[in-house]
Write a structure and sequence with these properties.
Chain lengths: ~425, ~150
């Protein structure tokens, strides 16, 4: 697939019509500091298309009431729509049963739920959890809290200089005390797509459940939890063109049923007296209190939007953007790409001469280009590569080759300012 | 604002060749400043005699705004008293948070006004203030006898 063809604006058969897609995203029309917005911070949070915005407005305008609580029409309507969204998430992840789909606040809450519901309930002193060297803080800190509380040990899968996990080392970490594996599907700081199929198979051989942090994977590559055969899968709505405040935790029913509830309150109970409480069935056992109803319904709509375009087409376009960008920045003297794994999502993390990423971010921002600068909530990754921070451009399906050109020009401007 | 208005020659110059960078042997007060958002990390070494700042130096990794701010700050406060430095700290904070208009209001900031543009960039205010914040903690820090202290 030639980039020249892409750049000419023609769409290949079966390819993505980016102009049409962009027209769905009102925010992409705005300017920043007088320049057209070039939004390349999609790994932090993606933008929302009009159909999802409309869905939120429609819900609040016509359908809002509390869910699971009323016999009146609106409450039933809200409940139906909210449960529809759960079914959409189930289909999106290829899960077999809607009872395995838990609404959470986001990836962070999903992981904390598993830490509490599974880790606190079943892990004992001396047990071990395997994490990888490229985890987001959301998949490190909850396990450290558990470690300190239960006196368990965390074992870390190392990675090589390209940002690929060392699978031989991974295998060696298993022993009779290993009780859980929790790894990211795609690294937010490096872009690495981990070979999760193999890694799940290894965990299976040792009879150890495995959690995948799908925050950076679900929006970009097709996921099927049954085919993968993972035990837990988590992602956030706001990185998938949906609203903030909602995410999905998938868990195998047999595990969820054994686990202890996360929070106590309304909706998660069947019967309460002052003596004892009978917990509700899954998934409601894990959904205490009034949820983010609009956000949940909005996430359902975002899933419709994404699947309407098709994750294969999304992945192909983003991959073409990444290759084009990687080739383009290779010629920039003093630019070092952090994360050069063979299989990568559209994340381009880099350092530039000895210019601090924060300065890069500010100067790019003045050209309308939004990138992230910092440690990307993955300080161990920064330490591994011997940098304090990186600048990171992360692409979505609505980004164009012209925007990559703007980024490259922006980087040249940064160098000129610091020359 | 054009980025060049913020990244003025003087700022870039201090970033490239920071003054008072390193460790001074006579230092008897030390403080560390850290901005977790971007990873800026500096250490200040201060030689206080009574109320007088006899010497001051800094080291660490930081963005251009932070480094230039630290470099110019060390130049400005050397020889001053703690009270005079505290006034500068307050004035500098007020300048970069837009509370002090250095063009119309009295101040003692001198060349530090090249950093006034930071007030238009809320995300960078912390970078500029970090050295000043650290200076303030250094005044409050325990006196150390040895200069070999590891950081
Ligand atoms: C890999 C990864 N895990 C977890 C998270 C946390 O997601 P959230 O902040 O939506 O809970 C993020 C997003 O920042 C991420 O990229």
């Amino acid at each position: 697939m030639s980039n020249a063809l892409h750049k000419s604006g023609k769409t290949l058969p079966g390819g993505l019509d980016v102009d049409r897609v962009r027209a769905d995203f009102p925010i992409l029309q705005r300017s920043i500091h007088g320049k057209p917005l070039v939004y390349l911070d999609n790994a932090a949070s993606s933008q929302m298309p009009q159909p999802v915005i409309d869905r939120l407005v429609h819900y609040q305008t016509h359908e809002h009431a509390n869910v699971h609580r009323g016999v009146h029409t609106l409450s039933q309507l809200a409940t139906t729509e909210y449960e529809n969204a759960r079914h959409k998430a189930m289909n999106f992840l290829g899960a077999a049963d809607a009872r395995e789909i838990i609404f959470v606040r986001g990836t962070t809450e999903g992981i904390n739920l598993v830490m509490h519901g599974y880790g606190r309930a079943f892990l004992k002193e001396g047990d071990e959890i395997i994490l990888s060297a490229m985890e987001h803080h959301a998949n490190i800190v909850p396990w450290q809290m558990l470690r300190d509380e239960k006196k368990i040990a965390l074992r870390i899968i190392p990675m090589d200089d390209t940002g690929e996990l060392l699978l031989d080392e991974y295998e060696k970490l298993f022993n009779a005390r290993t009780k859980l594996v929790a790894i990211t599907h795609v690294s937010n700081a490096l872009g690495t797509i981990n070979p999760v199929r193999e890694m799940i198979a290894t965990a299976r051989q040792h009879g150890v459940p495995i959690l995948l942090d799908g925050a950076q994977a679900a929006p970009h590559i097709p996921v099927n939890v049954q085919e993968l055969d993972c035990d837990f899968y988590v992602f956030s709505g706001h990185k998938l063109c949906g609203p903030t405040g909602v995410g999905i935790l998938y868990g195998k029913a047999a595990l969820l049923e054994k686990m202890q509830p996360y929070q106590g309150g309304g909706d998660m109970i069947l019967n309460v007296t002052f003596e004892r409480t009978t917990y509700n069935e899954i998934p409601y056992k894990f959904e205490a209190g009034t949820p983010s109803i609009a956000a949940g319904i909005g996430l359902g709509s975002a899933i419709d939007y994404i699947t309407g375009i098709g994750l294969e087409r999304i992945a192909a376009h983003e991959h073409a953007l990444l290759s084009y960008a990687t080739d383009a920045v290779r010629d920039i003297k003093g630019l070092r790409i952090i994360g050069t794994a063979r299989h990568k999502a559209a994340v381009l993390s880099f350092t530039l001469d000895d210019i601090h990423p924060h300065d890069i971010g500010t100067i790019l921002d003045h050209q309308g280009i939004a990138v992230r600068a910092g440690h990307h909530c993955a300080q161990p990754v920064m330490q591994r590569f011997g940098v304090a921070a990186t600048a990171r451009a992360s692409f979505a399906f609505y980004n164009t080759f012209e925007e990559v050109d703007a980024l490259v020009e922006g980087i040249h401007t940064v160098q000129k300012v610091f020359a | 604002m054009d980025p060049r208005e913020l990244y003025q020659e003087m700022i870039l110059e201090h970033n490239k060749k920071p003054r008072n960078f390193g460790v001074i042997a006579q230092a008897n007060r030390h403080a560390e400043g850290h901005n977790p958002v971007c990873g800026d990390h500096i250490t200040l070494h201060l030689h206080l005699e009574g109320e007088q700042i006899q010497g001051i130096s800094f080291e660490g990794h930081s963005c251009a705004i932070c480094k230039a701010s630290a470099s110019m700050m060390t130049g400005q406060v050397k020889g001053k008293t703690v009270a005079e430095a505290e006034t500068l700290i307050q004035e500098f904070r007020d300048m970069v948070t837009g509370k002090l208009d250095t063009k119309t209001q009295p101040h003692h900031l001198g060349r530090l006004t090249v950093l006034a543009g930071v007030s238009e960039l809320p995300s960078r205010v912390k970078c500029a203030v970090l050295p000043w914040h650290t200076l303030h903690s250094a005044f409050a820090a325990q006196e150390t006898a040895s200069t070999e202290k590891e950081f």
